[in-house]
Specification:
single chain; 410 residues; mainly alpha; 16 helices; disordered N terminus
Length: 410
């Protein structure tokens, strides 16, 4: 029975994507733990701010244009959307660099590198969507591996040469290497952009810009702003401990969920757009989300029971809250595992307004947690934040299934 299920998964290309994600995230976890130990919690905290800025601007600059690639059915329009989105993102990036001249508590060099990395990352990500659309899943895996492996190698080298901000510079080199590879693989699909045609296609999907982009942007803030907020009220070493805990908990989600999501999105869109029985979309969504949940649940149990004691032996007292933070964040990330692989279903069934409302909740959860945490302490901050994630993602999942079940009975 298990082998038959594995064969079905392999036929859906999930294992192809998973191999790349597994190698990439394995390097990030094992390498990340080693790097965190040798760089120290304070520098790791600064690194997490850079990654947060990169994560936010990869969405700000992208303008949700990956959906223009994934939802298009005509090959010429796919290539045109891919090409036009790159030019538009470049223009938005150049404007965003003006933020460097506005006084912030964040160092200007970190802000500049974060914005630039966001731009490079989103172009690579758009190339992945394009290659997935063309069913070139092995190339998607190659791009995923390139980023993490090259980043890690340079970050290790910079430890020995004691390069300042070695984590940030090494990561940037990895992003650039993945971008060059992405350009090599997807360059033949790049055409001279026909912006008139691009905007004509965009007008047929107003929900992307009316709901999906604002929703995705608020989601990016909700998922990335916490390190920036923590840096305002707590020392860098505590920020480093929190960020490493989040990274450890995020890796199973990124490794498993993104593998499933890369295959789920086009398949679910195909089921919906081709007018197949509505029960098929409900069953497919339920199967994929629960498969992800069961795997993540087993991994989180393993991390807490076996991984945390090993981490306590590996790290020194500067990381003493790491095990507690991992345990607390497990609850919020567990219900998140139900949503991550199927989150695009709301766009497919044209319920992007639901995602927008939820992402506003997610952003407010960050604000609520930081307000309580700055008074009560960082342990309360992490606990409250995880609880709000647990409740929010859990409610969203059951609401999505309710929507699909309702459509099934219509």
């Amino acid at each position: 029975m298990f082998l038959n299920k594995l064969k079905r998964i392999n036929n859906n290309h999930i294992t192809t994507i998973f191999k790349g994600n597994f190698i990439s995230k394995f390097v990030l976890v094992i390498g990340g733990l080693l790097l965190a130990k040798y760089y120290g919690s304070s520098e790791y905290g600064v690194y997490s701010i850079y990654l947060s800025i990169m994560g936010i601007f990869s969405i700000v600059l992208g303008l949700a244009q990956e959906h223009q690639i994934m939802l298009e059915g005509n090959d010429e329009d796919i290539s045109n959307n891919f090409s036009a989105s790159a030019v538009i993102s470049l223009a938005v990036t150049l404007i965003s660099f003006l933020l460097v001249f506005i006084p912030f508590s964040i160092p200007k060099d970190i802000l500049f590198l974060g914005i630039f990395s966001g731009f490079i990352y989103l172009l690579t990500n758009n190339a992945k969507f394009l290659l997935a659309k063309k069913k070139l899943f092995k190339l998607v895996s190659v791009l995923t591996i390139t980023d993490s492996v090259i980043s890690f190698l340079f970050q290790v080298v910079f430890v020995f040469f004691k390069i300042e901000n070695g984590l940030i510079i090494g990561s940037l080199i990895g992003f650039i290497a993945a971008f060059i590879a992405a350009f090599y693989y997807s360059g033949k699909y790049f055409v001279k952009p026909d912006f008139k045609r691009y905007f004509a296609n965009a007008r047929t999907r107003p929900e992307i810009f009316k709901y999906t982009y604002p929703s995705t942007l608020i989601n990016a803030l909700g998922n990335n702003i916490m390190p920036i907020l923590i840096s305002l009220y707590f020392i860098d070493s505590l920020l480093g401990v929190y960020s490493l805990a989040v990274k450890i908990m995020s890796v199973p989600l990124l490794m498993i969920s993104s593998s499933i999501a890369t295959v789920y999105y086009p398949k679910a869109a195909e089921i919906y757009n081709q007018g197949k029985p509505k029960a098929e979309l409900f069953a497919y969504t339920k199967k994929m989300s629960l498969m992800n949940f069961y795997i993540i649940f087993a991994l989180y149990v393993l991390i807490n029971v076996v991984g945390v004691p090993l981490l306590q032996l590996f790290f020194n007292k500067n990381w003493e809250h790491l095990g507690l933070f991992i345990f607390l964040m497990s609850f919020g990330y567990l219900t998140r595992s139900l949503i991550n692989p199927i989150s695009d279903i709301l766009l497919i069934v044209k319920k992007s307004n639901v995602a927008l409302v939820f992402n506003i909740y997610l952003f407010l959860a960050n604000i609520a947690a930081i307000f309580i945490g700055k008074e009560k302490g960082i342990v309360y901050l992490v606990g409250i934040f995880s609880l709000l994630l647990f409740l929010g993602y859990g409610f969203l999942y059951f609401y999505i299934m309710f929507i699909l079940r309702k459509n099934e009975s219509d």
